[in-house]
Design goal:
By secondary structure, the protein is α/β, with parallel strands linked by helices. It has helices at about 10-25, 35-45, 60-70, 90-95, 110-140, 150-160, 175-185, 205-215, 230-235, 250-260, 285-290, 300-305, 320-335, 345-355, 360-375, 410-425, 430-440, 440-450; strands at about 5-10, 30, 50-55, 80-85, 100-105, 165-170, 195-200, 215, 225-230, 240, 265, 270-275, 280-285, 305-310, 340-345, 380. Helix 1 links the parallel strand 1 (about 5-10) and strand 2. Helix 6 (about 150-160) crosses helix 7 (about 175-185) and helix 13 (about 320-335) crosses helix 15. The longest helix has about 30 residues, at about 110-140. The protein is elongated and about 95 Å long. Bound molecules: adenosine-5'-triphosphate (ATP) and magnesium ion.
């Protein structure tokens, strides 16, 4: 199909000359003799390009450009303005308003055709890029992996994204729960509004309450002015409650009320604040188990998990390892400015065999380290420092760990208890020291100690 060009000029001689030249060059032409008519043609005839005279009766060329700026980029064609030699200032003004280029009268035939061809080419590219970008953003976000298990979670997440339903993301540490929470927000009608992340484990109960609900002036010593909480900041958007399994029962009750009524009071206040939010929650805990054990409210559990998405551990989708490794390798070589690095076949085999207890996050870290440390451009297995290959961590041979044959969650819990006990012993019972050695926040360690009755 030949490109359609709209000629806008009130001078009949110029219009005729342009029609002749453009048609001879194979373009279709339509004509408008004043601004309003030009705008109507642009909306109804969708020309690929507009040749616009700046000195028009009634609505000026500049006014036409201003109106066009209000259209969506996909609906407004590139505009080349035509101006008399003497009024270069007007041409500059037109460029500021979004014109693609300008031509001075009298028009030079060859120059005219070159400028038109370039503008059309650039506009085609612009449209292609916009289209591809929307495809990539929309369909894949940054989620790498093509295994059937990941594909089915992505599809379910995209379906859930369209609604306001609560989503509960389950999966071991490092499997991509936060990445999926962000993607769901991106795919949802709320994507232009904020996504607010709240980590329920990093804070003490009072701090978390303050973070969620905000406070009124004078609510506590030091509260010298009103402060909005994160739920309020997320109004119109999405709230991501990370590590929800670690929220205290008191806060669970308050959160439940927000989910039921979409309203709450700030700490120390009586005024009711209404919010329009969508909740996505994540945990690596077995919430059903926690409900049975009385640590998690059943009613809150049902509210949160209208849609449950379970992210598979990496060892159960080994076919994704190569693509993920390449993805992280590209990212880290770019960051470290070491282009051209690659994995040897032996290294790739080692990555594919490894059990990945820390899942995708661990794979990311392993490659980050290898890119920095590898002396050669080809990364060999010895640069991967895979933890489970480390004799000190080979639990299989350790007869001192009798819980290894228990079901997964019990075994993990016992192991966590074992690690904490050892750290506390080494630190002579000093929580701060033990927390330091485990690289945990002291408050978190305290909570683990209480929770697990170590
Ligand atoms: N499919 C994927 N493609 C690319 N990167 C991924 C994918 N899944 C996870 N990642 C990356 O792996 C890292 C860990 O993911 P994320 O933080 O989402 O995991 P998580 O399940 O929230 O972990 P945790 O329970 O430890 O908080 C992040 O850097 C994330 O971007
Ligand atoms: Mg996370």
């Amino acid at each position: 199909m030949n490109a359609k060009i709209l000629i806008v000029d009130d001078d009949a001689d110029i219009v005729m000359m342009l029609e002749d030249r453009l048609q001879a060059a194979g373009y279709q032409t339509i004509v408008a003799t004043e601004g309003q008519q030009a705008l109507e043609h642009i909306v109804h005839e969708s020309p690929h390009l507009v040749l616009l005279d700046l000195t028009l009766p009634k609505l000026s060329g500049l006014d036409v450009l201003k109106r066009l700026a209000q259209l969506k980029p996909s609906e407004s064609p590139p505009v080349i303005v035509m101006t008399a030699h003497a009024s270069i200032e007007a041409a500059v003004e037109a460029m500021k308003e979004g014109a693609y280029d300008f031509l001075t009268k009298p028009l030079d035939k060859d120059h005219l055709l070159i400028v038109i061809r370039k503008a059309l080419e650039r506009d085609t590219l612009r449209r292609q890029v916009a289209y591809l970008r929307s495809e990539v953003d929309g369909r894949y976000a940054n989620i790498v992996g093509n295994s059937p298990s990941v594909r089915s979670v992505v599809e379910a997440a995209q379906r859930a994204a369209k609604s306001d339903a609560g989503v509960l993301l389950l999966g071991e540490s490092g499997t991509g729960k936060e990445l999926f929470a962000r993607s769901i927000h991106q795919w949802s009608p709320r994507c232009a509004m904020p996504l607010v992340v709240i980590n329920c484990v990093a804070l003490t109960e009072t701090l978390l309450e303050n973070e969620l609900f905000g406070h009124e002036r004078g609510a506590f010593t030091g509260a010298d002015r009103q402060q909005k909480g994160k739920l309020e900041m997320a109004d119109g958007g999405t709230v991501f409650l990370d590590e929800i399994g670690d929220m205290s029962l008191t806060l669970q009750a308050k959160l439940l009320r927000v989910l039921q009524d979409r309203e709450f009071q700030r700490v120390g206040g009586t005024k009711t604040v209404s919010v329009n939010i969508r909740i996505i929650a994540a945990t690596n805990k077995d919430l059903r188990q926690a409900v049975k054990a009385g640590q998690f409210r059943e009613d809150l559990y049902f509210r949160l998990n209208v849609v449950t998405l379970t992210l598979p551990p990496l060892r159960e989708r080994r076919e994704d390892i190569a693509a993920l490794a390449q993805f992280f390798l590209d990212r880290h070589t770019r960051d470290a400015k070491r282009p051209g690095m690659m994995l040897s076949q032996a290294a790739l085999d080692a990555l594919t065999r490894y059990p990945w207890p820390g899942n995708i996050r661990e794979l990311d870290n392993v490659l980050a380290r290898a890119v920095v440390l590898s002396p050669k451009d080809t990364i060999e297995p010895d640069m991967l420092a895979l933890l489970a290959d480390d004799a000190s961590l080979r639990l299989k041979d350790d007869s001192g760990l009798p819980y290894l044959d228990l079901p997964y969650h019990e075994s993990m819990e016992q192991h966590s208890r074992y690690i904490i006990e050892r750290a506390m012993e080494r630190a002579d019972g000093n929580q701060t020291k033990a927390a330091d050695s485990l690289k945990l926040q002291r408050t978190y360690l305290a909570r683990l100690l209480k929770h697990q009755k170590v």
